[in-house]
Amino acid sequence: MNVTLFYVCFALYLMAMLYIGIRQAKNDSAAGYLMGSRSLPMFLVIGTMLATQVGTGSSLGAAGFAYSNGWAGLIYGVGGFLSIVGVVWLFGDIRKYGFATMSEEISFYYGGNKTIKAVVAIVTFFASVGWLGAHLLGGSMYLAWVTGMELPLAKLITLLGFALFVVGGGYMAVVWTDAIQALVLFFGFIGTAIYLLINMDGLGNVLQVMPEGTTSFLGIEGYGLLPTISLIVSLTIGGFAVPSFRQRIYTSKDEKTAKRGFAITAMLYLIFAAFPVIIGMCARAINPDLGNNNFAIPFLALNVLPTAFGIIIMISGLSATMSSASSDALTGTTVLINDIYPVFKKGKISDEKLVFVSRIGGILTMLVAFIMALTAVDITNYISNMISTTLTGLAVASVMGRYWKRATWQGGIAALVGGSVFSIVAGKIPAVMAVLGDPTLVALAGSILCCFVVSLCTPANHLSEEEALAIVRESNLV
């Protein structure tokens, strides 16, 4: 692939995304800048959800995982599908409450308690930053391999690739560019997979050279049953607690739009998920000696595919990372401005000032993610560790808070803390990691246990939904 031509095409693509994003921006109010005035139509819900879900893990990560583990790469598709379906099944009707963040939502489940709102705000902020860091890592690995630049510089360029339209255009800029990028990455990956299969005379020839056990159902014979279950649970639970997923529900124009949009997205994502896996296995068939399996797609783009296809798959991959990253950046910004900023700045704030502060908050959010991403080098481990440590307790607190009426705010905090503690401890025990692959199952069990025990030992919440909602709305800025 001609690297100079790639630079030119990528620069033109970024300028197009910036133009579209700024043109569609709603900067007249904080609600418009951070929430798109809560008016997303179905096609934008589908576009932004698909682009957000098809991020680093399910594109670069899944292809690299398939390079080493064959059909086990489909675990990303199964986990992602279950997470989307689970979110809309468990939380699809929360649009009616008018929440702006998960902090408000979970606080509502626990009687509008302000302590758990503050704790969840901090957790969801760093969860958004964590996902953003994962996408920065993925995009930078694409760039570093293809161009030969140093990884830190590639991370910075990846950040700048979406930071301009996020800061300048806000939420509507993000969802419109997401929708465009969803089309680019969807057809880019599918077209590349078909091209490779045609040139390799079919999938059968590819599967013949894969290691033993990796071509079984979900690659279970090679990867292992318990690690497979653990990774599926990890990805599913991660979706339950991904703040950007909830934000798509909050900002849909109504409940019906949110539910239908999520259902269609789940089906499209399940279809898409097979193609990065096929691409990863094709890379293994062509070159079984890659030093880093995460470079499967960049290797094909640089050394195997014709220039046009190489540029298409690279821009598709970068679209996957940037679309997901921009969503997480804005979600983290919303939490920072709506839930954390008011702790330090009391009183009413004008819309004009709030939009300005939101832009500053967006810059700070992306800067924190960039610093975190500088220390990471492996996508799959980064995501698994981040989910099990940060998001498992958040998922448990939200599900148990909503569906177990005896849950208390103390139990919710215990779920958050317990999930992290059990994850960290399990991750330090080699025998556990050897059997399970990652600490998610241990973190999940520990988080549920902590929430259950502490809730039973603390006073029950007796506030009605109306009373709890009134408390939550007292401090709502957007």
Strand content: under 5%
CATH architecture: Up-down Bundle
Overall strand count: 0
**Based on the structure, what is the oligomeric state of the protein chains?**
single chain
What is the CATH superfamily classification? Sodium/glucose cotransporter
CATH class type: Mainly Alpha
In the CATH hierarchy, the third-tier topology is known as Sodium/glucose cotransporter
Order of helix and strand elements from N to C terminus: HHHHHHHHHHHHHHHHHHHHHH
Query: Largest sheet, described in full?
Result: none
Shape: globular
Helix content: over 70%
Unreliable spans = none
Distance between the termini: 47 Å
Query: What is the tally of helical segments?
Result: 22
The class by helix and strand makeup works out as mainly alpha
User: Quick check: average pLDDT?
Assistant: 85
**What is the count of distinct domains?**
1
Radius of gyration from the CA trace? 22 Å
Membrane topology: Multi-pass membrane protein
Protein name: Sodium:solute symporter family protein
Subcellular location: Membrane
Organism: Faecalibacterium prausnitzii
Structure description:
Keywords: Membrane, Transmembrane, Transmembrane helix, Transport. One of its GO terms (cellular component) is plasma membrane. Belongs to the sodium:solute symporter (SSF) (TC 2.A.21) family. It is found in: Membrane. There is one protein chain. Helix 1 crosses helix 8 (151-199), helix 3 crosses helix 8 and helix 3 crosses helix 16. The chain starts with a helix and ends with a helix. The protein is globular, with a radius of gyration of 22 Å. It has 478 residues and is mostly helical. It is built from 22 helices and no strands. The chain has one domain: Up-down Bundle (Sodium/glucose cotransporter), CATH 1.20.1730.
